[in-house]
Amino acid sequence: MKKIKVVFDFINRNIIFILLIIIIINGAILYKLSQREQGTISMVPRYHFYFIGQNSVDPLWKQIRQGIEAAAEDYNVVVEFNAPRFNNPEEELKYLDIAITSNVDGIITHVSNGSGVVELINKAYEKGIPLVTIENDSKTSNRNAFVGTNSFILGREAAQLMIKATGGEAKIAIIVSSDYELDTSSQNLKINGFLSHIKDYPNMKVVEIYTSELGTISAEEITQSIINNQPEVDAILTTNYVDTLGASQVIVDHNKVGEISIIGYGDMENILRYIKMNIIYGTVMSDPYKMGYESLKALIDIKEKTNVSTFIDTGVRVVTQSNLHEYEEIIDTFE
């Protein structure tokens, strides 16, 4: 009994102190619970977006996806990714139709040159679904914005590389592609940008512009024909990575490395290897990661600011031996 009395006496003397401790403990518990609840609420995605790529295997589209994923995390949105394994415009249109039918909050899509794409983009517009085109544009449609590279500047940068590679004196052959998957107007702008920049160099002449039609094999055949029939040609410009690889391989096979300068496009593993071996002087390309990130950011701006530039330029990447090591380190971060 005496011990119990001592305890009660202690409680009576320190009742205020004990109550303060209880209040502090309860407050801490309630704060933790409220923080947990707020954290759960903040995890609810703001929007559900839909992305349609040209294919799922090209390194360019993998980097675009990584840019979108990074932006999705930063802006707390969910993105559904879809793309045919290999280039297939009909399958792209199917995914676009699914996105519109699903009434998603916004769409990022590659634009193929297949028929029906403008009609579907306009359908999304009529339903009030913001749509951003990426890499290839659809200027005649009601898309909200295009995110990609200024093709004219891309051509101008390629011309600058050609000037450096040849010292401003060259007989040049250009190989473009008739691949219906490529935006022909974009290719034309590249060529115009190239020609506009070399016109101030009187000793640089474009001998002929060739069109490849069957991918790598055709580019190889064209380069073979150039070597056999036009020995004055000492420089080649290619405008896509497939033709860049094809032309380069023929240069190697015919021991023309150092005799014919190549300015190409892209950063495929073999292209970077050819740059390292000085088979290709340099390449130009778009910035795929930035394209991905900026395309999702554009959708956010359209949804929340209702005002966004109709063309978001993501700049041009240039790769030569001088910056190859630095560029490879950047590429490694995406793998």
From TrEMBL:
InterPro entries: Peripla_BP_I (IPR028082), SBP_2_dom (IPR025997)
CDD domains membership: PBP1_tmGBP (cd06314)
Gene Ontology MF annotations: carbohydrate binding
Keyword Oxidoreductase: no
CC per GO annotation: cell envelope
Organism domain of life: Bacteria
Alphabetical UniProt keywords: Membrane, Signal, Transmembrane, Transmembrane helix
Location, primary (coarse class): other
Ranges for domain Periplasmic binding protein: 49-302
Cell location: Cell envelope
One matching Pfam family: Peripla_BP_4
Segments passing through the bilayer: 15-33
Family the entry assigns: Belongs to the bacterial solute-binding protein 2 family.
Protein name stated in the entry: Monosaccharide ABC transporter substrate-binding protein, CUT2 family
